[in-house]
Protein: Cytochrome P450
Organism: Clavelina lepadiformis
Amino acid sequence: MPIRRCVIITLAMDVKEGEIFLLKIIYTLLFLSLVYIGGKLFQRFVRFYRIRKNLRNHWQGPKCHWFWGHLGMVTRGNKDPARFITFFTEKEKEFPLGFAIYPGPFRAVLLLHHPNIVKKVLSASAWEAPKNRSSYAALVPWLGEGLLVLNGHQWFRHRRLLTSAFHFDTLKPYVKKMNHCGKALVKKWSSVIADHTSGKIEVFQQFSLMALDTIMNCLLSYEPNAQMQQSENIYVSSIYTLSKLIIERGRNKNLAMVFNFFYKRTKAGKDFQVNCDKVHQFSNTFMKQRRNEIADMNGNRSHFDFLDILLSARDTDGNGLVDSEIRAEMDTFLFRGHDTTASALSWTLFALASHPQHQDKCAAEIMSVLGGRDEVSWSDLSSFPYLTRCIKESLRMYPPVPVISRRLDKDIGAEGKTILKGTVVQISIIGVQRSELFWKDPQTFNPDRFTTESASQQNHHAFIPFSAGPRNCIGQNLAMNEIKVVLAHILQKFKLTVDHNHKIVHCHELIYRARGGLYLYLEKREDEKS
Ligand code: HEM
């Protein structure tokens, strides 16, 4: 007798009619669930097969293993961290539009570095080309569902509610706070060097703390004084621990660490959770305190910052953001608003230190505009054309965010090719900005690429450090203002030179940074020595 019939008969001997009926329903549901899961898996496989076939037929890529693909080519924990940067830039001659890579048997990614195709993807609506959430997976437990990772209607709602926080009227009073933090940095650096001697500093760490002071001061009207007391402030030390843990997780050779399920069980994963809790506690407490302040003053608060806007923003139905959404935005903006700016400041100063002729021109421009004042005003910001060109050239060569990722939700065609719905696309900002097809001598630092005349002849999507289209960087004006103010303070006082004994290891870890630090020598400017 077949086993199935035998089981049914045995069951039938012990159970009543009603129970048999119930069992039949359970078995049917189980069977239907299996069919559903199988169908979904089959559907996914068919979609992946179509995408892979399209990529194989129309988008060439570097040679790879027939089954494992390029797994191992860009491996985690690669011994050469600069490999990641070169990987994005060196394939351009071979594949001028972009190329496909297969990081394993069931994954396919299309890397784009041609401005015309990049334009098509970036100008697609946020629904047609949503963010690829898996590229932000490690950040989500910390940052929550903020603007950076949201998609669809939620993203649209948040972006609309937050846009007024970056209008010029809101940004204007921030310049005073930027001056304050820039001056504190100069004071700190002055103490590093004794008169007529030179001092060595690691700029990434210095700018990171300064940018954190600035962003918290601007957005929350709170100064943690991170520049002076990094380890004493729980919030500051926690976000440094979190960044460090995320970077270490990215370097970890153990592939299982990609999955939150395994990572959460490790010591590092538990440490990560403890620090996430501390950061969230800070944001929650701060938010509640501000609510009380607003209530105490019957809404008559004298200053209006980002947090005030978060708390008071209402959509057309009169609904505002709930506490968890406000906290996610606070955490997102404080994190995203400091590390990127610190990277931009570090690389610009490095570029100027490597090219003294440009550094001197910037310093002369700053001194002529400020005329001895030690405060940069809002109107001064548009009076530094040479400095602005140098900053842009640095953002071209060393984009703080070198790559961004999308998962297409519709077919997109460009340059005679089609990218199918469902394809994961990586836009190589660094590849576009160092393309030999669009930039003459792309590896040379040349600020004159950004004169009004040269810029007008350039393909607009060949320079996208802040991305472009509906999901461009909401904080770009704030960032540019801060970079100008801080560099004006530094270059007015100091002359910088490169430490040629220290090898610079370029890498992409959360942002474009130098592994092991970026060291420069400081010297007081001649006119400052007297
Ligand atoms: C030099 C400094 C900066 C650079 C190079 C930069 C670059 C970028 C890039 C490339 C994106 C697109 C990311 C993607 O599509 O995945 C982006 C988005 C974003 N940036 Fe920035 N950023 C900078 C400064 C800032 C600052 C100061 C803030 C906050 C005050 C900020 C907040 C954001 C947010 C919230 C998004 C997500 C916007 C959205 O999806 O609607 N960024 N940034």
Notes: The first strand starts at residue 98 and ends at 101. The chain has a mean pLDDT of 89. The pocket of protoporphyrin IX containing FE is lined by residues 131, 147-148, 159, 332-333, 336-337, 340-341, 344, 400-401, 404, 465-467, 471, 473-475, 478-479 (CB under 6 Å).
